Every structure is written in C-alpha cells, then in structure tokens.
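Appendix B. Raw example, untouched.
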Amino acid sequence: MSGPEELVPLARKSEDLGVAVLTVADHLDDHLAPIPALMAAASATTTLRVGSLVFANDYRHPVMLAKDAASVDVLSGGRLEFGIGAGWMTDDYRASGIPMDRPGVRIKRLEEAIQIIIATWAGESFDFDGEHYRIDGLVGLPKPVQSPRPPLLIGGGGRRVLSLAGRYADIVGLNPILTSGVIDAAAGPSATFEATIEKISWIREAAGDRFGQIELQTRIHMVLITDDRDGIFDALSGEFGLTPQQARRTPHALCGTVDQIVEDLLERRETLGISTIGISASSLDDMAPVIAKLAGT
C-alpha cells in the first residue's frame, strides 16, 4: 500500500467483509510507515481494528513507540492491537545501518522494551534500569483507551522469543524460524504441523496458568482457491522446503476449494488452538467467501 487510494478502500472493504483486524508490517521498503497507516485506516472506518504485524523493536526507542501507539488507540477509540517483535529482516538492518545483534541480544532488548511499553501505558511515573534502556521518572501520556492496555501481540518462531511471548503476550504469532533474515525454503522445516505443536508447547510452558487466556495466531503465506488441491501441493511444496504431505498440513498455507479451506481452518482451531490468521491484502477477495462462511463460528 503506497497511498490513500489503496489503503482507504482496503480498510473499508475489510470492514465490510467482516475482517477483524487490518494490520501493517514494519519494513524499510516502499510501503507506508505503520503509525500513520494505522491511523489512516482507523479514520476511514468505524469498527475495524488496526494493528502492527509487527513493529521491529530495534527501529525505535520503546518510550516513543509506546506514546505513538497510545495515541493511535486514543484517536481510534480503542481499536489498536499492538504487535512487536525482535526484528528479523537482514536487508532492513543492512540498508539502514542499524546494528543487527545476535538473536539472544535482540530478544533480551525486546523483553526490556515490552516492560517499558507496558509501564508507559499505565500513565504513572516509573523508573527502569536495564541493560539496554534506562528510564528516570517518566510519566507516559496519553494513556491508551483500552484497559488495562491494548492487546499485546508478540510474534516469532524460535523457543526464546515464543517463551517471551508466553510470559507477556495476549496474542502469540506463530511464525517459521527466519534466522537467515529472508523467507525461503530454509524456513520450511519449522513451518510443519509437528513443528507448530512444539512451538505451542514452549508457549504453554512459559505461560503457565495464563495459557488459556492467550490467543494463537498464524500468518498464511500462500492462499490458493482451487479444485486441484493435491496437484498444487505436489507442484509447489518443494519451493517452501516441505514434502507434499507436510505442505497439506502446515498452518501457514491454505489451498483448496472454499469448503476445504473452511474445514482446514476449523480443524486447526480444534487441534492446535489457532483462532486467528493473517492474510495478505492480495488474498482478500479470494478469502471473502471463507470469511463469510466462518462468520459467527
């Protein structure tokens, strides 16, 4: 989306079709920056929720990000879903000159940032003395409209970041492992049904008693409405680093007739607990009948 001629109609169509949340990514490409895009989408609609999928923590100081996000929540009437991650796209770091530390450092910095953002949204004076950030008597205003705060989404594919998500997040985004900094066939083995079960076990272990309150979400990287489901999986699975059988069961792809896709989504909700999916804007028209069939289920 490069301007209002694309974003505003997309937001209104999404609302009309019954999409729950319109999300924007956070990359240094030709797309709009997240905060103004979220505000534009919220201003063009009345009930559609807007969210980040996800802010890369390393690109902004958490105090400023918390204030920007709270402002969106206030101006949208409490419709923000706040997603944040440790950052992963190598090209963004390289092009911007932002240092890309090893994953463990980025994840520790992310945890500190989450603690600061939550404290900032409380609207009371607080201090923070961490390894990566220091706060001295900050009062975070404006406070978000939503109480106790906007829903917090943390996405990732590895054990450390998903354990972090289990401790803090309201929504956990289940992703392939992207240590190479790009989405390619190397991510395939971490995108299988079995790998997803293991990821959920990490979240459950870290979350403890609060696991039942966590919403599980996954990003769909391929949507194809077709009568030749088996032929498509056989032909394309190798490009994703999967066998045809693994491709049929991965929670990151949807392929088949509308009824088959509805059945797949209901089965994933039943067996994996995944109740939310993210699709690209280019897939919205194809998924419209699926959204309609699932409305109210």
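End of appendix B.
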